[in-house]
């Protein structure tokens, strides 16, 4: 889930079709090995979250051309699967959601600094680098010097962009004269990051009102709609959460406001993700037309 291949930081909670498409493949294909899904099934599922057939078809074609999806024909039907590049993106997103999480309570005082100097004509590559650095937790300390909390390995990003000769990376700790709280406020837009979490929590907390008690079965589904359409609900949930954490560098908890909203929002996300996981898997087995990649 790195850079604009996955999420446009300006797109908002109503994500573009490609973001939803990758969330769909992350939910239902990533852990299934060499599985491919028919275009008709993708059209059906994305239609549940408001994406029209033509938009789905054009997005599938564009993602094949960008090396994110593979394509194979079975009779009169076309099936789509993940390329190795897309798998790396989705595996990184999976780790970001489930392993690293949204809150860093164990920061050891280390920072990663990355300096770069690119020719003025390399606007596209500069944009790609900044986008990937943002996803990796970096913020601009100065125009050509970016910083991230902890030890962040950006080797693959730099090499993939062909910028190894233009980038220098260091590990460091701040001297006593550095006001870390002020540096964080100057480097990252904390209000914007917090607003994403607050907005996510406000949108999704009402879905918990009908959450069934443990052991009570699937519940009636009144109010949230997640029991009526778990595959659509989970798709929206995951894609919106990825948009929410898109620009959050997981700053050290001790340098954030005491009412930082990432923790409550993450709890809401994980409760709903746990609630929808099995119903969505069950529905996918019944609904999706699949084939094994050749």
Structure, explained:
The chain has 294 residues and is α+β, with helices and mostly antiparallel strands. The protein is built from ten helices and eight strands. The strands form two sheets. Strands 2-3-1-8 form a four-stranded antiparallel beta sheet. The relative contact order is 0.17. Mean pLDDT is 88; it is low at 1-11 and 213-226.
Given as residue ranges, the uncertain stretches (5+ residues, pLDDT < 50) are: 1-11, 213-226
Query: Portion of residues in helices?
Result: 40-55%
Number of helices: 10
Mean pLDDT: 88
Strand order of the largest sheet: 2-3-1-8
Computed Rg: 20 Å
Task: Profile the largest sheet.
Answer: 4 strands, antiparallel
Shape: globular
What's the short story on this structure?
Helix content is 46%, strand content 14%. It has helices spanning 17-28, 39-47, 53-65, 84-100, 123-135, 155-160, 180-187, 190-204, 230-245, 262-287; strands spanning 35-38, 69-74, 77-82, 110-116, 139-142, 145-149, 167-173, 290-292. β2 (69-74) and β3 (77-82) form a beta hairpin.
């Amino acid at each position: 889930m790195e850079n604009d291949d996955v999420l446009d930081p300006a797109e908002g909670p109503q994500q573009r079709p490609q973001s939803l498409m990758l969330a769909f493949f992350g939910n239902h294909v990533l852990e299934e090995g060499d599985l491919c899904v028919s275009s008709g099934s993708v059209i059906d599922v994305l239609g549940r979250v408001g994406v029209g057939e033509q938009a789905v078809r054009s997005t599938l074609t564009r993602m094949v051309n960008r090396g994110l999806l593979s394509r194979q024909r079975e009779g009169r039907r076309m099936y789509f699967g993940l390329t190795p590049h897309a798998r790396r993106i989705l595996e990184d997103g999976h780790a970001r959601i489930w392993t690293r999480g949204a809150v860093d309570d164990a920061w050891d005082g280390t920072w990663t600094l990355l300096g770069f100097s690119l020719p003025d004509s390399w606007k596209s590559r500069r944009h790609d680098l900044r986008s990937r650095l943002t996803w990796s937790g970096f913020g601009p300390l100065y125009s050509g010097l970016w910083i991230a909390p902890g030890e962040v390995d950006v080797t693959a990003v730099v090499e993939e962009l062909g910028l190894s000769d233009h980038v220098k990376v260091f590990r460091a700790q701040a001297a006593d004269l550095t006001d870390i709280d002020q540096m964080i406020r100057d480097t990252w837009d904390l209000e914007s990051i917090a607003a994403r979490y607050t907005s996510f929590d406000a949108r999704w907390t009402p879905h918990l009102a009908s959450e069934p008690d443990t052991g009570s079965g699937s519940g009636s589904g009144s109010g949230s709609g997640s029991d009526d359409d778990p595959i659509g609900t989970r798709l929206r949930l995951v894609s919106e959460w990825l948009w929410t954490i898109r620009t959050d560098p997981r700053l050290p908890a001790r340098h954030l406001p005491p009412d930082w909203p990432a923790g409550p929002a993450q709890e809401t996300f994980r409760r709903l993700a746990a609630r929808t996981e099995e119903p969505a898997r069950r529905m996918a087995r019944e609904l999706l037309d699949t084939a094994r990649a050749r």
